[in-house]
Amino acid sequence: MTLQDFLMLDLPPLLAAMLAGGTCGLLGSFLLLRRESLIGDALSHAVLPGIVLGFAFTGARAGLPMLLGAMLAGLAAVALIAVVQKAARLDPGAAIGAVFTTFFAVGLVLLEVTGARSVDLDLDCVLFGQLETLVWTEGRDLAALLDPAALAALPRQLGLMAGVALVVAVAVAAFWRPIKLACFDPAFARAIGLPSRSIELALALLVAAAAVAAFEAVGSILVVALLVCPAAALRLMTDRYTVQVLGGAGLGALLGAVGYALAGPVPAALGVDLALNAAGVIGTLGGLVVAAAALLRPRRRPAAAAITA
Amino acid sequence: MNPPAPLEVRHLTVAYGEKPAVWDVTWSAPPGLTAIVGPNGAGKSTLLKSALGLVPALSGEVRFFGRPLDTVRDRVGYLPQRASVDWDFPATALDVVCMARYPRMRWWGLVPRRDKEAARAALAQVGMADFADRQIGRLSGGQQQRVFLARALAQDADLVLMDEPFAAVDAATEAAIVAVLRELAAKGRHVVAVHHDLGTVPEYFSSVLLLNARVFAAGAVQDVFTNRSIAATYGARLAVLDEASVGAGAVGA
């Protein structure tokens, strides 16, 4: 493998996988601590109709309209889950399950109806992502990394992913303490005047945005793996909030990098004729990491008696 | 003129779905230590949560020190029920107590030393200084309750609303809570606590509100905490049940 091959073919998907894993891993801890991992699952699927409509309106795979459509669909899903839960007096799990599968199904139908599918938003890429198609045609040598014209030729999915990752990182840093309290004790947060409700809504929006950006990299199914697996593995390994949150982001990025490398470049470098679906490898690794953490249990969990006493 | 009551509610009505939990309650908490007493489901916790704006009221008005909550939030502390949070959360006892002081801090960065010291002092006050760095899931139930009490103390509020502070605690914790209540009263602070142990009301509190959706009696413990008013508060439910069973019998007959 030459440097040129790496820059043109491997760098963009590697970065996309790492940014997707890091962003989802960061947000995943908050979902897990709020016992809302299913919301991440729901949002990552419920955004599909918004993505398709954003695509249909502009007729092109432009990042911002699709992101906007996805955020609106995510908001609508969160609101509808609350309404269904209240009106039908369903248990939260049932309300979430009913809403997100419906949204996802509507998205699939829209994909056919709007003709988006025939262009280049096909079902396979929705489900499994398309990491391998991210190429940097101008990445001929290291100098290209500093050349604005060459950088402008980077795949636009990568730009969207980087933008969302930056927004998520800044938001999490700036609202560090309100988010922590909204995860641990939202009622107390509201009692002392912190904007707990707005924080909860903003978290949902960030998850929707991360899901859209990551969806192009790893597909809508495996976004869930990135939202759940790093956070769950860290939960089994640490009792410290900072380690949980930042470690989740780090582990997510690592999963993205290692998963992508194992899917293609490593076997290729070893001369093995084996090309795997990168998203599949990343998801599988995520499951293995959680399983390993559960088996090793570095963190001694408190005795059940201590919790109930 | 007397200073305004620490907490005053007027015509407060709260309902969950179609079932009213608090019905047209008009009451003002006197200074000092006050217990809210009543049977299960009488709306005691709901009254506190509604006063703090945590559950919406259908109607009514709430005043703290004669003013709306938003303008005096730093004077009002809150001790939620212990069961309301996940104690497996990755946080130490000190982390949790520091949360009381979040409104005084920036939203990012390290907790200022001043606030950390205030949190440690609050932990010491409830006899938990040695457990500051322990993960909260590895504390006993009573110790967890004392961490919550320390958090309420670290708010340094003039009035603390406590939701079942004595629920399922050991003798050492109960003694620690009582000592804290007396210190607060001695400093001229006020406490309104939901309480379920009728036997200890006269010993721990100076005033009482007997609540069963409606107000049945309110005032100084020695004046209103009588067998008659207690029976009326707790019997209201029985009387309703009697009527219901008579009705059911009539249908069945």
Automatic annotation (TrEMBL), chain A:
It is found in: Cell membrane. GO terms for biological process: response to zinc ion; transmembrane transport. The chain crosses the membrane at residues 12-33, 66-84, 93-111, 158-176, 245-263, 275-296. It comes from Falsiroseomonas bella. GO terms for cellular component: ATP-binding cassette (ABC) transporter complex. Belongs to the ABC-3 integral membrane protein family. Keywords: Cell membrane, Membrane, Transmembrane, Transmembrane helix, Transport. The keyword Membrane applies. InterPro entries: ABC_BtuC-like, ABC_TroCD. It is a multi-pass membrane protein. This is Zinc ABC transporter permease. The keyword Chloroplast does not apply.
Automatic annotation (TrEMBL), chain B:
This is Manganese ABC transporter ATP-binding protein. GO terms for biological process: zinc ion transport. SUPFAM superfamilies: P-loop containing nucleoside triphosphate hydrolases (SSF52540). The keyword Membrane does not apply. Residues 7-238 form the ABC transporter domain. One of its GO terms (molecular function) is ATP hydrolysis activity. Belongs to the ABC transporter superfamily. The lineage of its organism: Bacteria, Pseudomonadati, Pseudomonadota, Alphaproteobacteria, Acetobacterales. InterPro entries: AAA+_ATPase, ABC_transporter-like_ATP-bd, ABC_transporter-like_CS, Metal_Ion_Import_ABC, P-loop_NTPase. Keywords: ATP-binding, Ion transport, Nucleotide-binding, Transport, Zinc, Zinc transport. The keyword Chaperone does not apply. Pfam families: ABC_tran.
